[in-house]
Design goal:
The protein is α+β, with helices and mostly antiparallel strands. The protein folds into three domains: 121 residues, Acyl-CoA dehydrogenase/oxidase, N-terminal domain (Butyryl-Coa Dehydrogenase, subunit A, domain 1), CATH 1.10.540.10; 106 residues, Butyryl-CoA Dehydrogenase, subunit A, domain 2; 145 residues, Butyryl-CoA Dehydrogenase, subunit A, domain 3. 48% of the residues lie in helices and 14% in strands. The chain is built from eleven helices and ten strands. A hairpin with a 2-residue loop joins β9 and β10. The radius of gyration is 21 Å and the shape is globular.
Length: 391
């Protein structure tokens, strides 16, 4: 089934300020009571408990754009999605796995899946009963999807999948995985890339242990192995051979989501650094009194303000259905690079305290580094922007 055109249409731009404020307050309370007190322990275990997914689902975290018939909110501005990420960063927790569920995985079910697939998966994904993942990256295929080797051989009423995926967020805990595979290795440059819905309990599906990462310690990342996995034809997502077009169409939302996270992280880190500078005593006065402190924080605040302006423009374009791949790439490129600069400078102002893993700025520093890599590296974003300029 081809992707429905106008997935992000102008009606989504209606973000009633009172509704958004009320939703933001619910989200803020959720993170304060259900996440912050336990987050450090979840960083040690490498994932958040399943029950938290269901609690988040009951509050509508995963279904703001999903029709009510599937348990969603019936459509709303992307600013509601952004509010979840912003409040998570304000609370000092990443929760990128939630963003992956609502901003990246569910749109494939919403806009590419057929009616039967939507009815089968969407209500449980929205409710947090199922956890989703998307498996593109392989040991020899990252930014260049032409290097994908996972194969899908057509059988009688099914496809047989073989291959290995790596660096997969939610990779060891996901119940349903959108797997990118080659259904026609001898075809065009993208080898008939096709998307398959692979259930965790299908014979031949396995995962390695979660990876130990520089940051995002409470977010599972791992490998997915596929050995002679028989996937019914009814689990083909969209049309055979059209996988690249679906991935390309969904990338602007994915990159916008990453930009929101980067921006929110930088904003929260600057706020915390201002508070720290005012309270930290050095040489008989507060750290905030020193000219270098003022200049550093002023530069960071200016960077953050520029990122906010660019991001708000991108969100407005997304809500209106006019966000281009280049505009999304610009937002991700600037906000992720800016996040790296700001968090690094803020950590420097914190001194030794900022280098501690349990500090907010230390956690933000470790978490920030990957935003310039996943969802398309900064180098890939520059290529996308350059192409839009005819270069």
């Amino acid at each position: 089934m081809p992707e429905r055109e106008g997935a992000a249409t102008a009606h989504l731009a209606r973000a009633d300020p009172l509704q958004l404020a009320a939703f933001r307050e619910v989200v803020r309370k959720f993170f304060q009571t259900e996440v912050t007190p336990y987050y450090e322990s979840w960083e040690s275990t490498g994932a958040v408990p399943r029950e938290l997914w269901r609690k988040a689902g009951s509050l509508g975290f995963f279904g703001m754009q999903v029709p009510e018939e599937f348990g969603g909110g019936g459509g709303g501005s992307f600013r509601f999605n952004a509010a979840i990420t912003e409040e998570a960063q304000a609370a000092g927790v990443g929760m990128g796995a939630f963003r992956l569920q609502g901003d990246i995985c569910i749109p494939y079910f919403l806009h590419v899946a057929n009616e039967e697939q939507r009815a089968r998966y969407l209500p449980r994904l929205v409710a947090g009963e199922l956890i989703g993942a998307i498996a593109m990256t392989e040991p020899d295929a990252g930014s260049d999807l032409r290097g994908i080797r996972t194969s899908a051989t057509r059988g009688s009423g099914h496809f047989v999948l073989n291959g290995a995926k790596t660096f997969i967020s939610n990779g060891t805990i996901a119940d349903v995985i959108i797997v990118v595979a080659k259904a026609d290795p001898g075809g065009d440059d993208h080898g008939g890339l096709t998307l398959f819905l692979v259930d965790r309990d299908m014979p031949g599906v396995s995962s390695g242990p979660p990876f130990r990462k520089l940051g995002l310690h409470a977010q599972d990342t791992g490998e997915v192995f596929l050995q002679d996995v028989q996937v019914p034809e009814g689990n083909v997502l969209g049309e055979v051979g059209e996988g690249m077009s679906y991935l390309t169409r969904n990338l602007p939302q994915e990159r916008l989501s990453i930009a929101v996270s980067a921006q929110a992280s930088a904003e929260a880190t600057v706020r915390r650094t201002v508070d720290f500078a005012k309270s930290r005593r050095m040489f008989g006065t507060s750290l905030a009194k020193f000219q270098n402190t003022k200049f550093e924080i002023a530069s960071c605040a200016t960077d953050v303000a520029a990122g906010r302006a660019l991001l708000d423009s991108a969100i407005a374009s997304f809500d209106a259905g006019t966000l281009t791949p280049a505009e999304a790439a610009m937002a991700k490129l600037f906000c992720s690079e800016m996040q790296g600069r700001v968090v690094d400078r803020c950590l420097q102002l914190h001194g030794g305290a900022g280098y501690m893993a349990e500090s907010h700025v230390g956690r933000a520093y470790g978490d920030a580094r990957v935003t310039r890599i996943y969802g398309g590296s900064s180098e890939v974003m520059k290529i996308v922007v350059a192409r839009s300029l005819g270069l």
